[in-house]
Structures are given as C-alpha cells and as structure tokens.
Design brief:
Two copies of one chain form a homodimer.
Chain A lengths: L2 E5 L7 E6 L6 H8 L7 E6 L3 H14 L4 E6 L8 H13 L7 E6 L1 H13 L5 E6 L4 H4 L4 E6 L2 E8 L4 E5 L8 H18 L1 H9 L1 H5 L3 H20 L15 H10 L7 H18 L5 H12 L12 H10 L10 E6 L2 E5 L4 H13 L2
Parallel strand pairs in A: 2-9, 3-4, 3-5, 5-6, 6-9
Antiparallel strand pairs in A: 1-2, 7-8, 10-11
The complex binds nicotinamide-adenine-dinucleotide (2 copies) and zinc ion (ZN) (2 copies).
One nicotinamide-adenine-dinucleotide binds next to helix 4 and helix 5 of chain A.
Main location (chains A, B): cytoplasm
Pathway (chains A, B): Metabolic intermediate biosynthesis; chorismate biosynthesis; chorismate from D-erythrose 4-phosphate and phosphoenolpyruvate: step 2/7
Organism (chains A, B): Ferviditalea candida
Chain lengths: ~375, ~375
C-alpha cells in the first residue's frame, strides 16, 4: 500500500510525496510517471552511514530501469552541510557529466536532503531534485523546498528555495535508524500536530508506542499527517513571508539550546521538544489555560523526549544565543505561542524577563 | 537626462533599468522610489580596481540618505567568481549583520555582478540585489537575472536566477574603463543588434567612433538598445528553455577560444567578435547570402574588434573545447546562425567538418 500526498505550489512546481513500506522497489515506475529523463545521468548523494544499507539497492533498481547512475558519499552528520562538501557534490556532478536534464537524488536524512537540494538548486542554475528520506525527521525537510548549507557563523544561511520533483518515502528504511533518531524525528511530527490539528495530537498520544516501535500503519499515518500539515502551511506561504513562521514552534528556544550545547548533546528534535514545553509555559504566563502546558509536556514525555533543560546549561548563554537567532526582528522578541492544543499564534514583544523565567523553569522540570 | 527601461517578468519580479550620465547622484531617490528599506544594512560588493574610483562616493551618498552601508572589496578579475570569494561575501554579510530586508549592491562589471548576484540569491535564501554596472559589457549581465560563480572545471556552473531590484547605469563611470574593455563590451552591444534589429545594426555602424569615444548620447542610446533587446528575449523565456539561446550568437566558438587561450589572451567580447564572424561564415556555407558575412565582419572591424583567430591556436584544441561546451546536446552540434543581418536561427546537426573548416578560415581572415 502506498499513500500519496500532493504539495500544491501552482502548476509548474507542485509535486507528489509517496509514503509506504518497500516502495523503493517501485522507484523506476515512479520516475517514469514523473518523467525523469533517461538520457542524462542521475547523481545520488548519500552519507556513509546510509550508503551501506541502501545505496547498492537503489543504484541497482535504477540501472535495471535503464538509468545511468552515479553517486557521491559524504560523511554523516551536520558538518557535511558546508560549502566544502557542496563543492564536492558539484565536482561529482561535473565529472559525471550531469547536464540540465539530470536529476540529483538525496538518499538520507535532512542533512543529505539539504545538501543535495542546494546542489540541485545551484548546479547549472537548477536541475531536477528527488528526495528519498530515510529518517523520521526528514518528513519535515522534504516539504517546503528549503535547501541550504551552513556557514561557520550561522546555520542554513546559504541556500535556496528549490522544490523536489517528488519525495519517495520508503518507511522500511527507518528500521535501520537509531532509536534516538526515531524519537527526535517524532518530535517534529508532534509539532505539526500541535500547531494545526488537535485531533492528530490526540491520535499521537494514543499511538506513541506503535510509533516508537515503527509499527508500519501508524508510522505511515503519522508521516502522512506531518507532511500534510507542513504542506498546507507551506503552500499558503511559499516564500516565508509570515504564516510559515508557525512551523517554528519550539524552535526559538530549541535552536538556542542546540547552539549552547554546540550541536553535541541534544539532537534537533530533542531541543525543540524542550522548546515546545517552553512555548507552552510562556502561553500560560500570558494567561492561557494551564492544560496547554500540562498536555504538551505529557505528550512529549510519552515519546520519551526531554522536557527539561540540562542543569549545567547557562541561562544567560541561552538568552544570548536567542538574541542571535534570525527570528528576532530588530531587537524585539518574537515567539510562536500555543493558543490551544493544535493552534498557535505569533506574538511579538515578549518581554525578555518572561523568557528568562521560562528558561529557569525549564531547568527545574522533571 | 535619464533613460528608463522596464524588464518585464510578471508583477513581482519586473524591474527598472536607469541609464544616464551621473545618475549615481540620484541613487538615494531611486532607492526610495523602489522601496529599498533603511532599517537593514546594505552591502556593496566591488573590486579593487573599481573601488578607488566610486566606492567612497557611493557610500557617502547612501549614508547621507540615511542608509547603513558596508562593503567588501574582492580582487579584480574572473578568478573572483569562485566559491572561495563567494564565501568571503557571505562572511561579510553575516559579520555586518545583514538580514532578510538587506540589499546587496554590485558596483562593478560583470564579474562583481555575477558574484554579488549569486551571494544575494543564496544569502538567507535570497535578499534584495541592486546592480550598478561600471563596464559596457555589464549591460548584458544586468539583464536576465543569471548569476553565478565558476568551478575550476567549468564556468558559471554554480548559480541561480535572481532578478535585481533595479539597475542604475551611470554612464559617467565608463570614463575610467580601459579602452580595450570598452571595445570588448561594445561587441555584445553589436551582438544584440545582430540577433534582433537590423536598424540598430545600421545605427551602430554609423556611430562606431562616437561609441568608442564614449560620446554620451550615443553611448546611452546603445546601452539602452542593448538592454532593451536582451530584455525582450529574456522576458519571453526567463528560465532559458529555448528562445534565450539566440543570445549565444558567436558564443559557441567564442567560449572555445577563451578556453584555449586560458582566459588570458582574449577578452570575452573579443572572443565572441571572432565567433560572430564564424557564425556568419557558417551561415553562408549553409546557403545564405554572402553579405551576411561581409557586413558582419566590416561592422566588427569598425569597432576595432578582432575578426580572426590568432594563428598559433590549435584547431583541434578549439574543436575539443567546443565539444565540452554546454551548448552541445547529446553529441550534436548546435549553433546560432544569422539568417540575415538582425535575425538569427538556432540550427542543430551542424556537421563538425563545417565547423572545422570555419575555424581554419577564421585563422586566415585579415
Ligand atoms: N529543509 C528543511 O526544511 C529542514 C527542516 C528540518 C530540518 N532540516 C535539516 O535536517 C537536518 C537534520 O535531519 P536529520 O535529523 O534527518 O539528520 P541526518 O541527515 O544527519 O540523519 C541523522 C543520522 O541518522 C543517520 N541515518 C539516516 N538515515 C538512516 C537510516 N535509515 N539508517 C541508519 N542511519 C540513518 C545519518 O547518517 C545521521 O547520522 C538538519 O541539518 C536540519 O537543518 C531541514
Ligand atoms: N550574468 C550574465 O548574464 C552575464 C552576461 C555576460 C557576461 N557575464 C559575465 O561578466 C563577466 C565579464 O564582465 P566584465 O567584462 O564587465 O568584466 P569585469 O567585471 O572583470 O570588468 C573588467 C575589468 O574592468 C575593471 N573595471 C570595471 N569597471 C571599471 C571602471 N568603471 N573603471 C575602471 N576599471 C573598471 C574591472 O576591475 C576588471 O578588471 C564574465 O564573468 C561573464 O561571465 C555575465
Ligand atoms: Zn525543526
Ligand atoms: Zn557574452
């Protein structure tokens, strides 16, 4: 069984997301359906932890289907989202003779997706791009067309908007993903519920164990809903002028925690889990009902995600990191705040003191 | 007096080109008219040969107008169109605190335009971009939104389509441009005539001396017409699907000559001057009237542009360089061929032998 979802962005750039177990087997049929040309070589970009599991199989399938297939393997981890590794991908594209009709394929998580996507956006000023996500978190990065690499001074600062031709989400690939990565990815799934869909939040609460155990039907439903919600938001605001900011629930505090932990101690999904609890605390502080906080926290705990800030992290360092965040426009503090479960608001002028109190409280959460 | 031209690309991305002597003085007024925001810093990108002439003045004008202005100076020359220098521009943008509402300004020729343009396209996934061209050739690069840097294996291979907010073409700045650069730039002006407008070709023939002497009225007319023709072509084919290829008249042979000369001996405009004579030879070889060749050659000679290939250049090396050119789709040779003066056609399947003969003949031209 295969679920299909369409990301709607106006005729020329809308694209399908296919979700299902073992649908990698159908890749040639899907490529054909989408008109990926055979005359020009394909380039698979993947990382050294994903490659041993799936690279040969994907290559074999595509070759059997009549495609010429090249690949480049980058080191696993965030440090591959750099201009140096980007140049390595472009070199591979040039040496492999990729032309304007070629397609660059991301086989991996969000890191490989962002890197391969920016390469596809820039090579010859833009070639086709296909995403084959292999992490739970990548349900998030496969919708929206945001692709980027990092600069040593800032994350995701060098990038483009480049929509994929399609996303082929084979949920069987998630079986090899480390458990902690599964949990962290589910944090973004829950986030999509919290910003948009109370019913889906309730469903997540009831199916946390199935999701953590990668039970396929539940997993596919969750990824489908996560992609659906993100794509609804994105298609209403493709170039990030306003609405899209709701996707940053938990990210203001989350990004600061990641930075202070030097991207070592906390995974992104773990950091935003804590950040979502923080946003709920601020919400209550602003006068919203207490259950927003208690339910958010309970839900994230069901997914065995962290809900408190490790004590050794310095409050002022976290505050400083937030001040550097892009989301602070001209000095004022902007936050995405839950107005209810499944509903958020963007609020400006949040007093820095409230945020500081929230950080302190997050250090005391159990 | 100021000429104004609009590049039409659908509401959101159309932009004006202003052409006139000393219109740099009006920059603040023009920025205001276009709504360039004052709250966010501007970054001027320029090169070390242009900076001494115009950087202080431009900075002073903008600061007097209430803008916060930063700059980064890159080494003059094609080698600055690299990922390394691109990273330098991004670093300057980050260190200067540029945000999403900032504007990157290219002050210089096509090199600075392409580099600053790609930086503006990529920084935070796209910020505003303004072009202040200071070469004749840059009339070409300021229309069309093509921005790029080079890879050591291929020119312009890493790039984007990113339209400027506006182009402010102060023709007084051309007075400091070396004469050889003036001539090379006029080669592209003539090219725009040859592909599109017989009358303008005739006008160019009559005004070559005024143009070479930078007589202002003639110069402004020529740049206006060059921009107008390019913008007509581009607005009909923004993403380069077909028509836009006519702009490559003279470029297939021209690029090969530049490559064989290792980008040392011939300026781009000089190389395409020779290439345009080559295209005219092929045209006659295909059965078109002889005057296409004689008039093309005479016109280019009036501009003291080269019309023959330096004898020491190896024919086979030139042929090989052409085979590497992007314009050869799947092995067949595609050429832009004049069908008449002011009119071109795109022809596929040109026998390699005809091209070889043409190269040989170009070595014998006087
Ligand atoms: N573009 C967007 O809109 C967007 C949205 C969210 C996140 N992101 C980006 O995504 C990145 C994080 O994504 P991620 O969490 O997927 O990280 P990731 O790509 O680094 O994957 C996490 C780890 O799991 C390994 N892995 C991946 N798939 C595997 C599999 N099936 N089996 C075994 N190991 C596997 C990887 O090698 C890596 O070590 C960040 O760089 C973030 O900025 C982008
Ligand atoms: N984007 C496009 O559509 C497009 C079109 C055509 C060419 N280009 C690119 O443009 C570049 C060539 O442009 P160019 O010929 O303007 O080269 P350039 O920018 O290198 O300028 C030529 C030389 O003149 C100097 N100079 C520039 N303005 C001056 C002035 N007013 N006074 C004194 N010196 C001055 C520069 O320092 C440089 O040494 C190439 O990289 C080419 O790929 C791009
Ligand atoms: Zn996130
Ligand atoms: Zn040119």
């Amino acid at each position: 069984m295969m679920r299909e979802l369409s990301v709607d962005l106006g005729e020329a750039r809308s694209y399908p997301i296919y979700i299902g177990e073992n649908i990698l087997e159908d890749i040639v049929e899907l490529f054909k359906r989408r008109g990926i040309p055979k005359g020009s070589p394909l380039l698979i970009v993947t990382d050294n932890l994903v490659a041993p599991h799936y690279l040969d199989r994907l290559t074999g399938l595509l070759e059997t289907g009549g495609y010429k297939v090249l690949h480049t393997v980058v080191p696993a981890g965030e440090q591959s989202k750099s201009l140096e590794v980007f140049e390595q991908v472009i070199t591979a594209a040039l040496q492999g003779g990729l032309d304007r009709n070629s397609t660059i394929i991301a086989l991996g998580g969000g890191v490989v997706g962002d890197l391969a996507g920016f390469s596809a956006a820039s090579y010859m000023r833009g070639v086709r791009f296909v995403q084959i996500p292999t992490t739970v978190l990548a349900h998030d990065s496969s919708v929206g067309g945001k692709v980027a690499v990092n600069h040593r001074l800032a994350k995701n600062i060098i990038g483009a908007f480049h929509q994929p031709q399609m996303v082929v989400y084979d949920t069987a690939t998630l079986k090899s993903l480390p458990e902690r990565e599964v949990r962290a990815g589910l944090s973004e799934v829950v986030k999509h519920g919290l910003i948009w869909d109370r019913e889906f939040v309730a469903w997540c609460g009831e199916h946390s164990e199935e999701l953590l155990n990668l039970q396929q039907a539940a997993l596919q439903h969750a990824l489908y809903e996560g992609c659906r919600i993100k794509s609804l938001v994105v298609s209403q605001d493709e170039r990030e002028s306003g609405l899209r900011a709701v996707l940053n629930l938990g990210h203001t505090i989350g990004h600061a925690l990641e930075a202070v932990a030097k991207y070592q101690e906390l995974l992104h999904g773990e950091a935003i889990s804590i950040g979502m609890v923080g946003a709920a605390i601020l919400s209550v502080r602003m006068g919203n009902p207490e259950y927003i906080y208690t339910e958010t926290k309970k839900l994230l705990q069901k997914f065995r995600l962290p809900v408190s800030i490790p004590e050794h992290m310095d409050t002022e360092a976290i505050m400083r990191a937030m001040m550097h965040d892009k989301k602070f426009k001209e000095g004022t503090m902007v936050f995405v705040i839950p107005a209810d479960i499944g509903k958020v608001e963007i609020r400006g002028n949040i007093p820095a003191d409230w945020v500081r109190e929230t950080i302190e409280q997050l250090k005391k959460e159990a």
